Amino acid sequence: MTKPLDQRRILLVDDDMTVGFLVTQAIKKIGATLCVCEDSRCAIDKLKNEQFDLILLDHNLEIVGKKQRIGFDVLDESRTRVPFIMITSVTSPKLVEQANARQTLGFIVKPIISQLEPQITLALHHARARQNINEAFECNRKIDIYIGMLMQKHGVNEQDARRQLRQYCRSHQLKMIDFAGEALRGFNTQPEIYDIF
């Protein structure tokens, strides 16, 4: 079920106060919750400890020692999979390539002169669609693993294992994904419950 926009959480990672002000105004109009970090350390901590639906990520962050911190450092160090929009004043082909390799939802180019609400709203919808795809992929993977276990244990082919799983779930009024997910957790410890042959 898709969360309404007023229940979405957005993390802004940018040390530019003007960008912070403009984004804050746009987020207020959308109704989502905004959390602001002005440096990479704050952002990494937030991403490790809190849930967000979207990140608005400045490409060039603070300088640490003699090294320029970039937005990708935040993504890498936090190991997050939260969808993001890159905020940048320079859109070089190399940056676009790097951002696309990390599946960015788009770019906001500084100076910001256009309306942000449509861009952010669209990005939130794209982020949710991407999450739905990932969840569907994970569901299918669980079913495939369970079917593989049945095939191996009983020496049946994939078609017969799928048919047996479908029939079992229909007769017990279960969803295949719910049963397969539960079965993966209990197949080895309680085979009498989860072995449907």
Tell me briefly what this model is.
This protein is α/β, with parallel strands linked by helices.
SSE map:
Layout: E1 9-13, H1 17-30, E2 33-37, H2 40-49, E3 54-58, E4 60-64, E5 67-70, H3 71-78, E6 84-88, H4 93-101, E7 106-109, H5 117-154, H6 158-171, H7 176-186, H8 191-194
Parallel strand pairs: 1-2, 1-3, 3-6, 6-7
Antiparallel strand pairs: 4-5
Helix pairs in contact: 2-3, 5-6, 5-7
Task: Summarize the structure in words.
The chain has two domains: 110 residues, Response regulator (Rossmann fold, 3-Layer(aba) Sandwich), CATH 3.40.50; 61 residues, Orthogonal Bundle (Arc Repressor Mutant, subunit A), CATH 1.10.10. The chain has eight helices and seven strands, in the order βαβαβββαβαβαααα. The strands form two sheets. It has a five-stranded parallel β-sheet with strand order 2-1-3-6-7. The protein has a two-stranded antiparallel ribbon with strand order 4-5. Strand 6, helix 4 and strand 7 form a beta-alpha-beta unit. Helix 2 runs parallel beside helix 3, helix 5 crosses helix 6 and helix 5 packs across helix 7. The longest helix is centred in the C-terminal third of the chain and has 38 residues. The relative contact order is 0.11. The model has no long low-confidence stretch (mean pLDDT 82).
